[in-house]
Amino acid sequence: MEDPRICPVKSFYQRILLPVAYSMVFFLGFGLNVRLLWCVFLQNRRRSNMIIYLSNLAVADLLYVLSLPPLISNSMGDLWPFGDISCKATRFLFFVNLHSSMLFLACVSAHRFIGVCYPLKAVRTKTRKFAFFASASLWVLAIVEILPTFYFSHTGSINNITVCFEMVSPGQFQMYFPYGLFLVIVAFLIPFMVVVVCYCSVLRVLYKGATQHLNGISKTVDRDWRNKSLRTLLLVCLLFLICFLPYHVARTIYMFVRVFQPGNCQLLNTVMISYKVWKPVVSLNCCINPLLYFWSSGCNRKCLRACLWRDGRVQPGVCVLDTGIRS
What we know:
Elements (H helix, E strand, L loop, with lengths): L13 H30 L5 H17 L2 H8 L8 H34 L1 H7 L2 H19 L2 H4 L2 E4 L2 E4 L8 H34 L4 E4 L2 E4 L2 H38 L4 H19 L1 H10 L3 H12 L18
Antiparallel strand pairs: 1-2, 3-4
Helix pairs in contact: 1-2, 1-3, 1-10, 1-11, 1-12, 2-4, 2-6, 2-11, 4-5, 4-6, 4-8, 8-9, 9-10, 9-11
């Protein structure tokens, strides 16, 4: 494995890009998610499955943005002055947020797929008890997937400077590589495929015609319901395509170069810059998630204005979050 002193990694770009991007994500993500939780728990009396999933997403996003200040400080220079435990915790929170977000989006996709295509079976999954159980299971799954991060991520010394390795130290990439591929294939590709399959199925059902015969039940798909579903479908797909997919592609290429072409300094720096550029982009999911379902219908947009700007035209408890799916 390469010696970092022989093949140095350029980091000039991150002294401007990362502090600005992470600061923007911190202020927007913190404000939007706090206001979202305030709106849900204090202004909204309904506790539907979608609101439970959305609230868990907001909690994951808050945990992540609260871990950003050390990263903002560290991105201005290579020195990590916060200690080994803080290094492990910061990396752990980043990946838990990332993978729990994808898991909850996949869960919402499956929930909508069952509600549209199998309305009779959906009755069993519409209870709050099921939503709490599913949410707890997803948290456990995300934590178990990311637990090895506590072993791999740690502080170390490069050129007499203490740094916090994001994945693992350069000399341990051979050992980290199988786990890194596991995260890409199992923790990203599977939720991504669930989202794609579910929404393609919903799209096919919605566009079959105005009246559908689902499991022996004649069901009318009105234009408003279809438009709400398609708006949400488009937003979720864009979230995966813009935030998650490019980041995981860049991360996978970087890991392959680190393992199989460690001495190619020019290639290593190219893929490293590409990977680092996409990191702030994937962090934007903390800001997009609160807007995702609010923006799916007119009622939700009124709720958003009321919660964010204290719009007096919408009274507390009057506007109920509309998930855009009737099942």
